[in-house]
Automatic annotation (TrEMBL), chains A, B:
CDD domains: GST_C_8, GST_N_GTT1_like. Coiled coil: none annotated. Residues 90-215 form the GST C-terminal domain. It comes from Stenomitos frigidus AS-A4. This is Glutathione S-transferase family protein. Residues 8-87 form the GST N-terminal domain. InterPro entries: Glutathione-S-Trfase_C-like (IPR010987), Glutathione-S-Trfase_C_sf (IPR036282), Glutathione_S-Trfase (IPR040079), Glutathione_S-Trfase_N (IPR004045), Thioredoxin-like_sf (IPR036249). It holds the Pfam family GST_N.
């Protein structure tokens, strides 16, 4: 059975692959699971039909038979649990990979999202500059710790896992900010993630929504 | 094997049970798993010994034989996966309960934590009042959706689960704010969570750290 996910009809990031469907697409590519996509407009996201799938009126959602899920982290975990490739077989290593999934979503992503809120929702405030600096300081504090832990490692805990997938995706939100420049090992880590063929396929598929070209066409153009 | 968790030596909430060890204590009580606690000072949390357990220098951590975890969400999930009582047996219901865990941590908690950051870290700013109002507005937006979804239900998806445990804990952070007053069903939901004997035992245990009385003594005093 092919699952159906939802994505923005018009992504606010113009196809940079920062919307939350990107993590789900990437996870599905990692495990080799084909999927269908249903595009949702901003107004449809807030209507009852979509809220039956996601009470908070957001994308992505995931439907597979009689199972309906929301939250990109939960969907990635579901995919990782049902298919080989995103979580190690060893019980302790598997638990540590899941720990990194939670660490991304609870400890790293919130400080990064705050910077975006500052930039896009509070840019007209007189205190915007001051708040932005505070937000960036909090990001650097987390990245200091993350960079130290990653060290010279290729991935966060041995083999690539769902934890790395989510972490790379959230660090990508900082591209263009200059903040990652102080952390060469984190830049290399993101580059390693983006270099995976699975990432490329997922990226092209979400970009095709924006450009209107099918992703296979995009690949031929490249 | 009895696991060891870490908690604040001096909790900033003075024993209100809002520190992240409370979720882990409550989960351990729900599944009937005894545990040891090692208290950590603010300075020790930032040292290499503790950072080997949690790279971000936070509590709680969880040690069990050769397994070391961090992130309260991940630890609660680990407990829920290894013991009966926090996740349904039915596969789809289990996946939905896990979805709620992620929803708490990714969608509800971040907006609530922003209010605390505003109150405790930005109270000396001239823009403090304006920021606080914005933070509260974002919280209400999430609570509108959450309250609608919960409706007249007892728990988020049928039986009490690890998703409810985390959600009740995060909503408790709003006590005293007056924000929950507009959502009688969410107040009743939090009260239902706090009425569980497992909650009471976990709460007393964390309070005992602050009062210096063993929790059994507290129970006798009550």
């Amino acid at each position: 059975m092919i699952p159906t996910i939802t994505a923005f009809e018009q992504s606010p990031d113009h196809g940079q692959g920062l919307a939350r469907d990107m993590s789900v697409r990437w996870a599905l590519e990692e495990v080799g699971q084909p999927y269908d996509v249903r595009l949702v407009s901003f107004s449809a996201m807030k209507e009852a039909t979509h809220r039956a799938l996601n009470p908070f009126g957001q994308i992505p959602t995931y439907e597979e038979g009689d199972l309906a899920l929301f939250e990109s982290g939960a969907i990635v975990f579901h995919i990782a649990e049902r298919h080989a490739g995103l979580l190690p077989n060893d019980a302790n290593a598997r638990t540590r990979a899941i720990t990194w999934m939670f660490a991304v979503l609870s400890t790293v992503e919130p400080v990064i999202v705050q910077r975006e809120i500052s930039m896009y929702l509070e840019h007209d405030k007189v205190w915007h500059e001051e708040r932005l600096l505070i937000a960036e300081e909090r990001i650097r504090s987390r990245l200091d710790d993350l960079s130290t832990r990653l060290g010279a490692g290729e991935w966060l805990d041995g083999a690539f896992s769902a934890g790395d997938l989510l972490m790379v995706q959230v660090l990508r939100r900082l591209s263009g900010s200059g903040i990652l420049d102080d952390y060469p090992n984190l830049i290399a880590y993101v580059v390693r993630g983006e270099a995976r063929p699975t990432f490329k396929r997922a990226f092209d598929a979400q970009l095709a929504v924006f450009t209107g070209k099918p992703s296979s066409q995009l690949e031929r153009d490249a």
